[in-house]
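Title: Prediction job returns without error message
Component: structure pipeline
Severity: low
Priority: P3
Assignee: unassigned

Description:
Job completed but the reporter wants confirmation the result is attached to the right record. Sequence as submitted:
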Amino acid sequence: MTTHVLLVRLAAPLQSWGVASRFAAHRDSHVRPTKSAVIGLCAAALGRDRTDPVDDLAALAFGVRADHPGTPVRDYHTVGAGRFPLRPRDVITDHRRAAAVAASMAAADGPGFGHHELAGWYGAPKKITADPVSGALVSAELSRSAMITERWYLSDAAFVVGLEHQDRALLEDIAYALEHPKRLLWLGRKSCPPSGTLAAEILPGTIATAFAAKLLLPGPDGPDSSGRRPWAWVQAPSGTRGALQVNDQPVSFDPAHRAHVTRWEARTRITIAPTATGWDIIP
């Protein structure tokens, strides 16, 4: 039976495809998009909840062509702590903070509010509870330590993803949803929105033939006519010679039962065909 391939363009100033560091202090980025991330992107575009089944999307064969692998960049990220001025409501509603700055308030000349600081208390409020003295809602934590994370991204990368299936109607639904998403989309993290066109076109054949039939995506400096043979990673049948196992086949995105299994993937060079066509996209 004939198969069809939906080509998806993933390009942005920044992308980040985590594989092993969820909510950790060190948040890595894979060198290419993962199947789990792309299936999640499609599910979000279709408007599915995390608890909805994704069996039909997970059944798509997956491949990714690295037209422009990008440059790894590191973000040294800190949140919280430090010295910050108290707001009037902090003093009025929280007797603990009022007591901590009572001496400086008593010695102040002129307007008192906005001129008093506490060290180490700034941060997103957590453990909100009713204060037993005032009854106001306050944070149970009076001081906060700085949270330091190291986050990695790919800068100026551009990938072509191939989603292969026999059901062309399913691919058409996904393509429409990617251009008219029901939920916000991002390339790995919420700070990485995609740029320009996502759904390119649907071609008959396999992922390998579809990758060979399209020219390289334009890069940061314009069209690429170098004749390069980009690397591609294409899903393969179990036990394929030279293929490796990767643990990014989604089973469920339910936060309470998040699960993945392994699949097989082969790395190959793609030779762009002499008859390859260009891209009708918004960069």
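Comment from assignee: result matches the submitted record. The longest helix spans residues 168-179.
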